Amino acid sequence: MNAVAQVAATLIRGWREGRQQPLPTLELASEAEAYAVQHQVADALGWFASGPPAAWKLGGAPGGLISAAGVPARAVHPSGWQVPPGDAFGFGIEGELIVRLSRDLDQHTDLAMAYAAVDVWMPGIELCGTRWLQGDQAAPLLRLADQQLNRALVLGAPQTLREMPDWSRQQVTLRVAGEPQFVGVGSHPFGEPLSSLPWLARHAAALGSPLRAGDLVASGSWTGIYWASAGVQVEVEFAGLGRVALST
């Protein structure tokens, strides 16, 4: 069994059994292999049986790899969602701005086209977790293969922006049980929250699942990842753009 097949089989078993899995003995050699694993896992679990992904997560930071994963429709929830018992192996919280596209985007997309294609902006939470038992020791390509740790997206109320904020001054606050755990200003790793959207348009087109009008894109974490405990209320607020909450 080659590395792609072994990693995919292990992750599929983890999803089906609802149990974390030991790290595989074989290493993935490239991002292409990690995305091949994503595809095999999604196919085996029927995530996109009725059509291509309509929601995506973006990740990465300067100097590292930009990453993406399609998000199943059943993993997208409104603000106030309660994570079902046993549904997560951990509660990794990332505060993000999530956009909905008003038009299709192809491999020729640039940053101006990306901004022009946004219909609405939403404060969002990405719930992260790993299917690996030793997740903190997993190589970056294994995390990428594991849907880049995506578990769910939680959406706040949509906002239409007539003018773009000064992103360098955009404040975000992450609260747990009402107490601030992170306060940042201009804390998106790339500065511009949509800076990786042209890359995603190229990536999705290369996969044969180009971005379409109506698609949702979680555009990267403003808060880093905060590991919350079970049984708490988590809230992320973007000043002037609204707030979003979930219960662990």
UniProtKB/TrEMBL annotation:
Gene3D superfamilies: Fumarylacetoacetase-like, C-terminal domain
One GO term describing the cellular component: cytoplasm
InterPro entries the UniProt entry points to: Fumarylacetoacetase-like_C (IPR011234), Fumarylacetoacetase_C_sf (IPR036663), Hydratase-Decarb/MhpD_sf (IPR050772)
Listed SUPFAM superfamilies: FAH (SSF56529)
A single GO molecular function term of this UniProt record: 2-oxopent-4-enoate hydratase activity
Keywords: Aromatic hydrocarbons catabolism, Lyase
Domain Fumarylacetoacetase-like C-terminal span(s) in chain numbering: 85-244
Superkingdom of source: Bacteria
Pfam families given in the database record: FAA_hydrolase
Recorded family membership: Belongs to the hydratase/decarboxylase family.
Stated name of the protein: Hydratase
Origin organism lineage: Bacteria, Pseudomonadati, Pseudomonadota, Gammaproteobacteria, Pseudomonadales
